[in-house]
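#struct-pred
JK: can someone run the complex with thiamine diphosphate? inputs below
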Amino acid sequence: MAVMTYREALNLALREEMRRDPRVFVIGEEVGLYEGAYKVTQGLLKEFGGQRVVDTPIAESGFTGVGIGAAMVGLRPVVEMMTFNFALLALDQIVNSAAKMHYMSGGQFNVPIVIRGPGGPAAQLAAQHSQSMETYFYHVPGLKVVRPTTPMDAKGLLKSAIRDDNPVIFIESETLYSVKGEVPDDPEFLIPLGKALVRREGTDVTVIAYMGMMYRAMEAAEELEKEGISVELVDPRTLRPMDTETIIGSVRKTHRAVIVEAGAGFAGMGSEIAAFVTEQAFDDLDAPVERVTGANAPMPYARNLEKLKTPSKDKILAAVRRVCNANGG
Amino acid sequence: MAKTLTRGGASSGLGVDAAVAKQLLTDMLLIRRFEEKAAEAYTLGKIGGFLHLYIGEEAVAVGTTSVLRPDDYAISAYREHGHCLAKGSDPKRVMAELYGRRDGLCKGKGGSMHLFDRSTNFLGGHAIVGAHLPIAAGVGFAIKYQGGDQVIVCYFGDGAVPEGEFHESMNLAALWKLPVIFLCENNRYAMGTSVERALAQTEIWRFGQTYGVPSERVDGMDVLAVREAVARAVTRARQHKTPALLEADTYRYRGHSMRDPAGAVYRTKEEVEREKLRDPIVLFRDKLLAAGLLAEADVRAIEKDVNDRVDEAVAFADASPEPPGEWLFTDIYKEA
Ligand SMILES: Cc1ncc(C[n+]2csc(CCOP(=O)(O)OP(=O)(O)O)c2C)c(N)n1
Ligand SMILES: [Mg+2]
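RT: done, structure tokens with the ligand placed:
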């Protein structure tokens, strides 16, 4: 185990996979000479050269399509979105080309591509640069969608994503790049896609969260412990395919569920989780499922308004207390 | 079906020998008859959805493919039956795909607009206008990355030219020197919108100049002219990894799709009749007869052979069962 930042963990995953498999290459804006807008690709150009670390002009649809075409005929591209906000310019390529190629072709052409970069709320970057983007992708059959919360997950999941034979949307976070954590040194350390993780065991309520919201929920859980409420924290890690089994298993144990998500709540991840928990574990529930979500508003710039947009620890605390005080049993 | 053909037969004065000429005519006729039968099947309700016929444009696919190697790639939009057949797909499996049957090229999951054939390096069948151009650039990127000397031909309509992806792809292919032959089939209309109503620059080949890509316009109704222009582009692409933009001047005789049967609101009957005077199949057949490369009896034999193969394709599609219900959920992901 080594302690490293989330950014370094991603960098290491890229390096290891590029060393292991000559078909893997990195392509995107500023990934080479500039070493990545967020320095995730630092040093890769030096180690692997310009053929495998490809700087592109600003043409998201174009270079994403290039990745898809290359993947169809045997390469394994890792496409960097400088931030996921710009992936909307490539949405057609991702949704209509990458996700459907294997299906439309009756299984003849798969698209082993990873599209990665930061997304989600960031510090005072305002409406166009600070938003949860996973919503646009996890609805689509044919895509896998990953949101890695810790440095260890960042490494283990990115490596699995690169080895996966399908298109994987891998959304990191500006606010997590400098977070430190333990990361296994083993170059064969992989975390399988589609497996949730119980980050904290508890008995009274299941809180489901990922990325920045997981860190906030963790703080809330420590505080609630002092009140005598024991919180179990589940991190889905992969949003599609979702490990419903682990989540349902936890809810059956605690009989209560709270979902925390940074994005706007309407038709968000929380809606889907609340739906399947209700469908599959209704009889186990002692209280209605609660969602703590981002406000249904664009991200404002002003610091005070920005704070109101994203779920606060207080809101998480209040929701957990509500479900724990409800007496359904 | 079209094999790699070398130039020869100086005696004809056409630049091709009798065998090549015969093959070109056969390939064009096969596409024509195939499309006519597909239209019939559509009317009978055996084919559903959108059906875009290639009738009138056969010389482009056939002339182009005749100078490709089997390991070269081709990719197209949704008017792609002709490109797919020319690249060598079995007409039986193409027809079965149009019918949505289990023996179709794509197990019935793709349909008319999404034909794919790994065995011939035919990479689809893409129905979002402009979207397959960057994909073609990506295949060119991979060819270079892998150290190969193949090329990819990317067919698209005049309707893709005003899309951003056309310009992104031309720029990337030129910037990175990718072996991509962008082949615009300018049939003068995108549905009902003529190029004059869509493009500030109606001479499409000139867009290549902007990006420093060797470009030319070619008579898309002349299979030999197409063949020669593509051969030049292929040679450059193989040797120097240079992309090309070719604009084939062509015409579709039918409506945009079977839902636009007359294709008459946005163009005149006279225009269509005038264009039929340069029917690529009639012109080429007459040329071969005049040059003495083929006799009337040869033409009849070719027609019979083609009709038989198309009838066989229809019978095959008719006999093929529908895909089983479980297939709804297969091929969504590739399992490890
Ligand atoms: C991005 C996109 N916009 C609109 C359409 C609807 N549409 C389908 S075909 C077509 C016309 C395209 O014309 P062209 O590229 O010239 O090809 P042709 O039909 O003439 O072969 C349109 C507008 C589409 N499929 N994709
Ligand atoms: Mg057109």
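RT: quick notes.
The mean pLDDT of chain A is 97.
The longest strand of chain A covers residues 257-264.
JK: thanks, will look after standup
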